[in-house]
Amino acid sequence: MGVGRLEEELLNVFSGVYLFQVESYVVPLVGSGFELIAHLSDWYKKHHGENILRIIIYSGHAASAGTTSNHWDLAGRADYNGRLQGPKLDWWPIRSMLNDSDYVADTCFIFDCCSAESLALGGSDGDELIAAAGWNSTASTDIR
């Protein structure tokens, strides 16, 4: 999708300006849901506590089945009409697992994808959300 440079710049701001510890993770195409859950579970165990702010950033494609849907799919590709292509993973079970974690900390989700505001529909448990695209709109990396 061409967002690597933008993500790198954002990570550099977090680490260079705010002195946050940062790391990047690319969701694999094979076993994406399982691998993401495993990665986030380990990451949550390492980074939790009273004075911790976790910032989770997702840049890619996403689609919701509507405001009453019980799933919100993330994917690495979308066709010209915005329909997700290839492997997909449903964010809601992952989010539920994170919310039920014993490893609590303040969390901010930054989602740069179509229908990003769907994240707010799933309940937040006090988490913060920055949604960088509108409902049923197509995201672009064109920063002109």
Structure description:
This protein has a domain at 48-144. 26% of the residues lie in helices and 25% in strands. It contains 3 helices and 6 strands. It has helices at 4-16, 32-46, 91-99; strands at residues 53-59, 61-64, 72-78, 84-90, 106-112, 128-131. The strands form 2 sheets. A 3-stranded parallel β-sheet has the order 1-5-6, with no helix packed on it. β3 and β4 (84-90) form a beta hairpin. α2 runs parallel beside α3. The relative contact order is 0.18.
Give a short overview.
The chain has 3 helices and 6 strands, in the order H-H-E-E-E-E-H-E-E. It has helices spanning 4-16, 32-46, 91-99, and strands spanning 53-59, 61-64, 72-78, 84-90, 106-112, 128-131.
Question: Secondary-structure blueprint of this entry?
Answer:
Layout (H helix, E strand, L loop, with lengths): L3 H13 L15 H15 L6 E7 L1 E4 L7 E7 L5 E7 H9 L6 E7 L15 E4 L13
Parallel strand pairs: 1-5, 5-6
Antiparallel strand pairs: 2-3, 3-4
Helix pairs in contact: 2-3
Protein traits:
144 residues, alpha/beta, 3-stranded parallel β-sheet, 3-stranded antiparallel β-sheet, 3 helices, 26% helix, 25% strand
- Describe the largest sheet: 3 strands, parallel
Number of helices: 3
On the 0-100 scale, what is the average pLDDT? 81
Based on CA atoms alone, the radius of gyration comes out at 15 Å
Strand content: 25-35%
Class by alpha and beta content: alpha/beta
